[in-house]
Specification:
- The chain is of the alpha/beta class.
- The chain has two domains: about 210 residues, 3-Layer(aba) Sandwich (D-Maltodextrin-Binding Protein, domain 2); about 100 residues, Periplasmic binding protein-like II (D-Maltodextrin-Binding Protein, domain 2, 3-Layer(aba) Sandwich), CATH 3.40.190.
- It is about 40% helix and about 15% strand.
- The chain contains 14 helices and 14 strands.
- Strand 2 and strand 3 form a beta hairpin.
- The longest helix is centred in the first third of the chain and has 22 residues.
- The radius of gyration is 22 Å and the shape is globular.
- It binds glutathione (GSH).
- Glutathione binds next to helix 6, strand 11 and strand 13.
Length: about 350
């Protein structure tokens, strides 16, 4: 009996050591491998989807490239690992991916119980509903009895249940795994309603044969702060992800762009820009990165505003306004702490 207890304790100790090793040193692992592994969507236009050549593109895909530029000095050294709503945290926590950049909502349970760290919020969103115009529905309150396409393993699923229960409405869920499946089912009329993050609705609608035949209802029923996620237990890695993101915000605020970063990196009369781009101080070394990590990030993908406008902004098919994602200086929530 004693022996069994001893073996169990020893095994637990080995497992504990094993898991702390697996959780620490992500930066070294990525460097040794020469490749950053980003967990992304299976396919969401504008955010992370494969183009005609099979290459991942989009807002989240570019934040992954920005991270590779900072860490490896080369934005192309990335491997994209597609994940559904259900599989993403297992892939992250098992160590198959280094960071999750995938329309993932920061919640209490995911932070505390799933044991992950949300390093930033790269898109402030909320859940909405889309219906075919021909149904004549004007408000979510009229959706009693509807069939609803819903992605499993998401906050969407939980919010939907809460919303219908509080409004004393019944619905029939049509559970699905991927956005692609959701679009197919919704367009085939197998559900009356598609509900997900409002950005995801806009992205999906842009791919429809006739987008104007579908309307997004006025109700936004939740807060969906979406952002990059890392495993618990590796603060250095969490810091890198957080400050790569902050750098894209700081660059936008201070007017550093893809086009002018090489010039600005030589030195400017703004000390904060100089610290961000490595012309002054040693912020890079504090993160375990090269001096010019910030220059590499902006040279590869541009600042936050440039990334936003290129993939999902008002001049794209997806056509999202900055809204809550405007910089704080323009009335939005995007705000980087100081680079000092
Ligand atoms: N933000 C929600 C929903 C995330 C989600 O899975 N959204 C869908 C629709 S916007 C998506 O990203 N799908 C991509 C895919 O299926 O791979 C969450 O974190 O649970």
């Amino acid at each position: 009996m004693k022996k069994i207890a001893f073996i169990t304790a020893a095994t637990a100790a080995v497992l504990a050591i094993g898991s702390s090793v697996a959780n620490a040193g992500t930066l070294d692992d990525v460097r040794k491998r020469g490749e950053l592994r980003c967990i992304v969507s299976t396919g969401l236009p504008g955010f992370a989807y494969t183009d005609a050549a099979g290459v991942y593109q989009g807002f989240d895909a570019d934040f992954c490239r920005a991270t590779a530029a900072a860490v490896l000095g080369d934005a192309s050294k990335v491997k994209f690992i597609p994940a559904t709503g259900k599989t993403r945290f297992t892939i992250l926590n098992s160590g198959e991916g280094d960071v999750l950049w995938r329309n993932t909502t920061y919640t209490f349970v995911r932070d505390v119980d799933v044991k992950t760290t949300f390093a930033a919020v790269n898109y402030y969103d909320g859940q909405g509903f889309m219906v075919p115009k021909k149904l004549g529905v004007k408000s979510a309150k009229e959706l009693g009895g509807a069939t609803v396409c819903i992605q499993t393993g998401t906050t969407t699923e939980l919010n939907l249940a809460d919303y219908f229960r509080s409004n004393k409405l019944k619905y029939e869920p049509v559970p699905i795994e991927t956005s692609d499946e959701a679009r197919t089912n919704y367009l085939a009329g197998r559900c009356d309603v598609y509900t997900t993050d409002a950005s995801g609705l806009a992205a999906s609608r842009a791919t429809f044969p006739t987008p104007k035949d579908h309307i997004i209802l006025p109700e936004i029923i939740s807060k969906e702060p979406l952002g990059p996620v890392v495993r618990h237990g590796d603060d250095q890695w969490g810091d890198i992800i957080r400050w790569v993101f902050n750098l894209t915000l700081g660059a936008e605020e201070l007017g550093v762009t893809k086009a002018n970063v090489a010039e600005m990196a030589k030195g400017t009369n703004n000390p904060e820009i100089n610290r961000m781009l490595g012309a002054e101080g040693d912020l890079g070394a504090m993160l375990g990165l090269e001096k010019d990590w910030g220059t590499k990030v902006i040279a590869a993908v541009g600042n936050y505003g440039e990334i936003f406008e290129r993939h999902i902004g008002k001049d794209t098919d997806i056509g999202l306004e900055r809204g809550l994602n405007a910089l704080w200086t323009n009335g939005g929530l995007q705000y980087s702490p100081p680079f000092r």
